[in-house]
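U., I forgot to send this yesterday:
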Amino acid sequence: MQGSPPRLTGPFAWFLILALVAGLGAGVPARAENEYIRVADHVARHPEQRALMAQFAERVHAPAVPLATPPEAPVRIAVVYPGLQTSDYWRRSLDAFAARLRRLEVPHELKAFFSRPSVDVELQARQLAEALAWEPDYLVFTLNALPHKRIIERLLARGEPRLILQNITTPLAEWQGHLPFLHVGFDHVQGTRLIADWMLERADHRGEYLMLYFIPGYVSRMRGGTFAALAAQYPAVEQVAAYYTDGDSERAYRATRQTLEAHPDLTMIFACATDVALGALRALRETGREGEVLLNGWGGGTAELEALAAGGLDVTALRLNDDNGIAMAEAIKLDLSGQARRVPDIFAGDIALITRDTSPGEIARLERRAFRLSEPSPEAP
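Result:
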């Protein structure tokens, strides 16, 4: 592709918009979960992706090289995020994305929409309709629930706008012949394995644990499901309760209080997201169990790092956050340069394990790398 991608225009545009959002807020019948292909399995099926992913990662980690031939008109980029959370992952991703686009000298218009995960379904439908009515060249969206899948499939069938799926690095098997432009984020399974190995070893591979899921869907399956599978390998480890929290801190707090009352010998709590972990932490503090029951974060954003420094969290998987914003900008630059074939199917950023034993100096070093554009310093590339 050279120059700006074709835009969605005409009467069909409005028909498509209405069709896309009509099912977003509607109830969806239960059915078997879709098969997600893990990163390693996708590369095994498509070995040419290994070199593409490695070359693209080098581009992400290197200083920005401006676009040689800018398009005649600014490209339009719509971002629809479930970003109203304590976790600063989505905000930092957007900041890094915009900063890298500027450094690449890609002329662009960026329109962002934020909502709460799970509870703002109708708002998200309206936001998506507004985003598509704006006729963007690129749409950054996510996939966590079945209604999202319906929308994505219709966009893929249409072929425009170019679709970037964020916070998912595992393509669906049924989409193998027609993938989105880019899957971008961090491998939930990899991060959870790091956390689980540390927690289970610290607990001597025994004890009771509480599972605090996010919302029913992708993140809960990849994070919570992975931890549960790893814990099940040890006969002396028992899951005594599990709750879906809808990513709500208050629900996580109540679930933790109830479980502590019913199971006073609780050893571990696995939390699938930042807000969930902070709700559980409040319950542990109020019951005098902080420091006794192992508790994780997931993502390593500012709120988690502060809680870990204060002794409230024991471990987290720190995403090198800004990599995914930079990756989206670099993919768009390649597309505008007529080099879309150099964009891999997946970009999965690096993850580092941080525990209560990690030195402040090492944490500071990782923070500088993780947030190098969302909190720019004079030496940031």
